[in-house]
Specification:
The protein has helices at about 15-25, 40-50, 75-85, 90-115, 130-155, 170-185, 195-200, 200-210, 215-220, and strands at about 5, 30, 65, 70. With about 240 residues, it is an alpha+beta fold. Strand 1 (about 5), helix 1 and strand 2 (about 30) form a beta-alpha-beta unit. The relative contact order is 0.14.
Length: about 240
C-alpha cells in the first residue's frame, strides 16, 4: 500500500522534507492534496483533519498515513520512515541522534517562517513588514551563523566521516540539510553568498545530494515545485540584508 502524504498544494513548505526522503528511496507514495478525484485534493486533507471519528487526527500538515496509522510533524514522520526507507542509521543510538538533528532543523525552519511573519500568521506580510525587517536582520546576523555553524561542527566531528552528518551513509537528515541550504539561498541570496567559504562541509554535502540519481530525477520533474512567496522560504529583497 502506498504511503499517503498530506500537505498543502502549491508550495514546497515543510512537506518537502518528507518528499525528498520518499523520492530518494523511490517509495510508493501519493501526494494527496495535489491530486484530484475521490478522496483526493485539499478538501480530502481538511476533511480528515476535521474528522469527528478518526481517533488520531493531526493538528496540521504535513502528516503521513500508512495504513491505519497517521504520523504527524516532519521530524516524527522521518523518524518513522527513516528505517523503512533505508535512510536512518542501523544503530538505534544514532537514530536518536538523527532525530535530534532533524528537530534542530525544525527549529530553524520555524525561525525562517518568522522572518516574514514575526507578529502573527493571520496577518499578511505587508501588515508586518517593519517587524519583519528587524526580525530578518537578527536572523541573518545571529541565527543563521548559529545554526549552520552547529551543523558544520557536527559534520566535521562525525567519527564516520564528514560526507554525511550521522553514521556512515546518507540519511534523511542530509536530505533535509540540502533543503535548508536551498531554501536559505533562495530567501536570502545576499546573506548566503559567502556561506560555502564559512561552512565548507555543509556546502559539500549540499552539492552532493542533487547528484544522487533519484534526487536528481525528482528535482528535474514537475513533482518538485519551485520556491514561491506562499511557502516557508520566501524571497523579499528588503529582508535580504548583508550580515
Amino acid at each position: 500500500m502506498a504511503y499517503e502524504l498530506y500537505y498543502w498544494n502549491g508550495i514546497q513548505g515543510r512537506g518537502e522534507f518528507v518528499r525528498l526522503a520518499l523520492e530518494e528511496a523511490q517509495a510508493d507514495y501519493i501526494d494527496v492534496a495535489r491530486l484530484s478525484g475521490p478522496g483526493m485534493g485539499t478538501a480530502a486533507m481538511l476533511e480528515l483533519m476535521r474528522s469527528k471519528h478518526e481517533p488520531h487526527i493531526a493538528f496540521a500538515p504535513p502528516f503521513l498515513r500508512d495504513g491505519d496509522l497517521i504520523v504527524s510533524h516532519v521530524a516524527n514522520i522521518l523518524f518513522y520512515l527513516g528505517p523503512k526507507l533505508g535512510l536512518a542509521p542501523g544503530d538505534e543510538r544514532l537514530r536518536y541522534l538523527a532525530n535530534g538533528l532533524q528537530l534542530t532543523i525544525t527549529d530553524l525552519v520555524a525561525e525562517v517562517h518568522d522572518t516574514h511573519h514575526p507578529i502573527a500568521t493571520s496577518l499578511y506580510y505587508a501588515d508586518q513588514k517593519e517587524a519583519a525587517k528587524a526580525r530578518s536582520a537578527a536572523f541573518i546576523s545571529e541565527r543563521i551563523p548559529k545554526f549552520l555553524g552547529y551543523f558544520e561542527k557536527v559534520l566535521r566531528q562525525n567519527p564516520k566521516g564528514s560526507s554525511q552528518i550521522v553514521g556512515d551513509k546518507l540519511s534523511y537528515v542530509d536530505l533535509s540539510l540540502f533543503q535548508v541550504v536551498e531554501g536559505l539561498r533562495y530567501a536570502f541570496p545576499k546573506a548566503m553568498k559567502a556561506y560555502a567559504g564559512n561552512y565548507p562541509g555543509l556546502a559539500a554535502l549540499h552539492d552532493a545530494v542533487p547528484k544522487r540519481p533519484n534526487v536528481s530525477a525528482y528535482l528535474r520533474s514537475d513533482r518538485r515545485l519551485a520556491f514561491n512567496e506562499d511557502g516557508i522560504f520566501r524571497h523579499y529583497p528588503e529582508l535580504d540584508l548583508m550580515p
